[in-house]
Design a protein that fits this description.
3 helices; 0% strand; mainly alpha
Length: 94
């Protein structure tokens, strides 16, 4: 189908239905933003996972030196990572 036939078909559909939906591809800026957001979500959930690991390690060896501090650091890292990840997922769904 050439472009003029396609255009006239689209215009006819627009006239009769009042709206037209056409397939297309996302812009390059949107594609870059989606990739960056996906990477940021992955990093934030990885930080939350690392926080959980730090909490577990700190709980196991809490009597050895400064390892009990890893419970606090792990909790902070876990909460912040989870919070940022959930916010980014929510923004992506908007």
């Amino acid at each position: 189908m050439d472009s003029m036939t396609g255009l006239s078909s689209i215009l006819q559909r627009l006239e009769f239905q009042g709206s037209v939906t056409l397939p297309g591809r996302p812009s390059e800026a949107l594609s870059r933003w989606r990739r960056k957001r996906s990477i940021a979500i992955g990093i934030s959930f990885a930080a939350a996972g690392a926080g959980v690991v730090l909490i577990i390690i700190g709980a196991i060896v809490r009597d050895v030196g400064f390892w009990s501090l890893s419970i606090i650091v792990g909790a902070l890292l876990g909460v912040l990572g989870l919070f940022v990840g959930v916010i980014l997922v929510g923004v992506g769904l908007l």
